[in-house]
Amino acid sequence: MTTTSPLSPRTAAADAPIPFLDLQPVYRAAQAAIDAALLRVAGSGWFLLGEELKAFERAYAASVGAADCAGVANGLDALALALQALGVEPGDEVIVPSNTYIATWLSVSQCGATPVPVEPDPQTYNLDPVRIAAAITPRTRALLPVHLYGLPADMDAINAVAAAHGLKVLDDCAQAHAAIYKGRAVGSLADLSAWSFYPGKNLGAMGDGGGVTGDDPALMAQLRVLRNYGSKVKYHNEVKGRNSRLDEIQAAVLAAKLPLLQAQTEERRGLAAMLLDGLAGAPLQLPVVPQGLDSAWHLFVVQHDDRDRLQAELARQGIGTLIHYPVPPHRQPAYAELDYGDGDFPISEAMHRRVLSLPLWPGMTTAQVERVIRAVRAAA
Ligand SMILES: *Cc1c(COP(=O)(O)O)cnc(C)c1O
């Protein structure tokens, strides 16, 4: 298969370093629209809660098949405000994956609730629905699955557990823009769905950004109140809200980039297919995509027993890699209060010792992918 990217016409020297991530090709692909958007907002004199935000919210909701989207300041706020809108209160428990970026857990803590970790399926790295029931207590209020690395979690099974126990479901979609679950877009599979538009995410702003998608008009209205000081009418405050708004510049940039997201996701899928093909049979654990699912390929994560040596060898050859993530949330000093120890979540702990994310971005060339494959095969 050949993947000649329309985004990266440059031909790099055969031994030039390969960065872990290069955001320039995506900017160049949308440059005219992005630059026009920046100037339009600068000249408008209107910077918050205006027409740019409304236009992006409409477009983004439509792109994920949800009735509505509320822009907020970042992905962590999207999660925390969505939990609050769903009624999560101090003293409640929310079930989270034991292996996720710590923001998932922090959003629960920000509501005064307790994150209750559940181990992943060791093949898909996503929350194992079979393990959820054992973690449910009378204080459990919601389930918070994550579509880790861009692969959709098993939402039918997770929603079934939630329905059986009367729980709400919020999914953390920060890594899963344009991912597909059994023919349905991620972002319309739960009570609410939280997004990050952090610059390195698959749809990234030029600064921080986030959003919540959903169908229930009452929940979406509550989110708009919570993000704006708890106020529907200026200077009238119904609840103790926050200041968490997606500003007009970021909304305009995101709207300019959104039309290219689908093609860029297809490009990621082509690059991932090349990596899977080229690394088949190598002594590595490769990502698994179950039937019926289309990953967004935010990250291409392999597992290796001697991960640190593999990473060092690739670095020696100028190939950038990262570890997502080196320390599981239950072993972070920030969560010492929960009193977990080594061995409490063995699947997650083994992953954190073994995972390595290889370079993959829209605009990466076939030659770069081939070099990564050769280097990994030689070093693994
Ligand atoms: C990036 C990320 C977040 C947080 O998003 P920010 O916009 O950085 O606050 C939450 N959850 C996951 C899984 C993420 O990858």
Could you please describe the fold and organization of this structure?
The strands form 4 sheets. Strands 1-9-8-5-4-2-3 form a 7-stranded mixed beta sheet, with helices on both faces. Strands 7-6-12 form a 3-stranded antiparallel beta sheet, with no helix packed on it. It has 380 residues and is an alpha/beta fold. The chain is 37% helix and 14% strand. It folds into 2 domains: 31-118 and 125-258, Type I PLP-dependent aspartate aminotransferase-like (Major domain) (Aspartate Aminotransferase, domain 2, 3-Layer(aba) Sandwich); 259-379, Aspartate Aminotransferase, domain 1 (Alpha-Beta Complex), CATH 3.90.1150.10. Strand 2, helix 5 (102-110) and strand 3 form a beta-alpha-beta unit. It is globular and about 65 Å long. The structure holds pyridoxal-5'-phosphate. Pyridoxal-5'-phosphate binds at residues 74-76, 100-101, 103-104, 146, 172, 174-175, 196, 198, 208, 210.
Summarize the structure.
By secondary structure, this protein is of the alpha/beta class. Helix content is 37%, strand content 14%.
